């Protein structure tokens, strides 16, 4: 009797386990189907997550970040802001490409082609390898000219990371706005439909974590320097 009861119990337990697994599988399939149905709205939300511009305001200068695209979307947006009289001058920030030419030089040509007069254009050539170092250089350039209101123009997908870095780089007495330039290769509402759009999204996904890491370690180094203070070389007696 006991043997039969144990067998019945094991059989019932196995049937219950199979039923539970089947229900979990059904629920998982339903969830995946629901995600598939709403994939486009979710991907649009993800794509627009990177686009966080500030509304334009009267500024001392418009600064275009380096590495504009082939169609000069950043320069086009900066020229529009200049013609709308948000600022009296435009700085083209750009990396050196050769000892005799930089992206800043190309920006100057792009701006002139869009109606910005040469006296209103200030090239700023540099060797910064990334956005963090470029913004540090721009901060020094801005402080050198005593500008207090700055509007930075970059691509739409690059605005969130740029805003984050600006908050940690520029001092409190310099008011910085970040303006988005529509990008021909990145539409936040349909970025997953093109290879370039997917690459841009993933690049920015990695870039924001790198920015967090860089700023965190930069703050740690600054705090350590404050605690330790300057080194004094005292000769032995």
Number of helices: 7
What's the CATH H-level superfamily name of the domain at 51-184? HUPs
Classify the helix fraction into a percent range: 40-55%
Structural class, from helix and strand content? Answer: alpha/beta
Distance between the termini: 97 Å
State the CATH class of the domain at 51-184. Alpha Beta
**What's the pLDDT, averaged over the residues?**
88
Return the CATH architecture of the domain at 51-184.
3-Layer(aba) Sandwich
Shape: elongated
Compile the SSE list and pairings.
Elements lengths: L1 H36 L1 H11 L11 E4 L8 H11 L6 E9 L2 E2 H11 L7 E6 L4 H14 L4 E7 L3 H11 L5 E7 L13 H34 L9
Parallel strand pairs: 1-2, 1-5, 2-4, 5-6
Antiparallel strand pairs: 2-3
Helix pairs in contact: 5-6, 6-7
Description:
The chain is α/β, with parallel strands linked by helices and 237 residues long. The protein has a domain at 51-184: Rossmann fold (3-Layer(aba) Sandwich), CATH 3.40.50. The chain has helices at 2-37, 39-49, 73-83, 103-113, 131-144, 159-169, 195-228; strands spanning 61-64, 90-98, 101-102, 121-126, 149-155, 175-181. Strands 1, 2, 3, 4, 5 and 6 form a six-stranded mixed beta sheet that branches. Strand 1, helix 3 and strand 2 form a beta-alpha-beta unit. Helix 5 crosses helix 6 (159-169) and helix 6 (159-169) packs parallel to helix 7. Mean pLDDT is 88; it is low at 230-237.
């Amino acid at each position: 009797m006991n043997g039969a009861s144990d067998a019945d119990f094991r059989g019932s337990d196995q049937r219950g386990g199979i039923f539970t697994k089947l229900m979990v599988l059904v629920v998982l399939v339903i969830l995946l189907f629901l995600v598939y149905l709403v994939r486009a709205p979710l991907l649009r939300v993800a794509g627009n997550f990177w686009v966080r511009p500030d509304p334009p305001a009267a500024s001392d200068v418009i600064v275009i970040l380096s590495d504009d695209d082939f169609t000069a979307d950043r320069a086009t947006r900066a020229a529009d802001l200049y013609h709308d009289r948000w600022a009296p001058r435009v700085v083209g920030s750009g990396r050196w490409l050769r000892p005799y030419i930089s992206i800043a030089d190309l920006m100057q040509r792009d701006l002139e082609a869009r109606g910005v007069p040469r006296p209103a254009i200030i090239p700023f050539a540099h060797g910064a390898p990334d956005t963090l170092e470029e913004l540090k250089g721009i901060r020094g350039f801005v402080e050198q000219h005593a500008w207090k209101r700055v509007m930075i123009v970059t691509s739409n997908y690059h605005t969130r990371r740029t805003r984050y870095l600006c908050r940690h780089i520029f001092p409190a007495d310099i008011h910085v706005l970040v303006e988005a330039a529509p990008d021909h290769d990145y539409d936040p509402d349909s970025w997953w439909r093109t290879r370039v759009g997917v690459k841009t999204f993933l690049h920015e996904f990695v870039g924001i974590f790198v920015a967090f890491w860089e700023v965190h370690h930069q703050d740690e180094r600054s705090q350590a320097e404050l605690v330790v203070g300057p080194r004094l070389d005292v000769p032995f007696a």
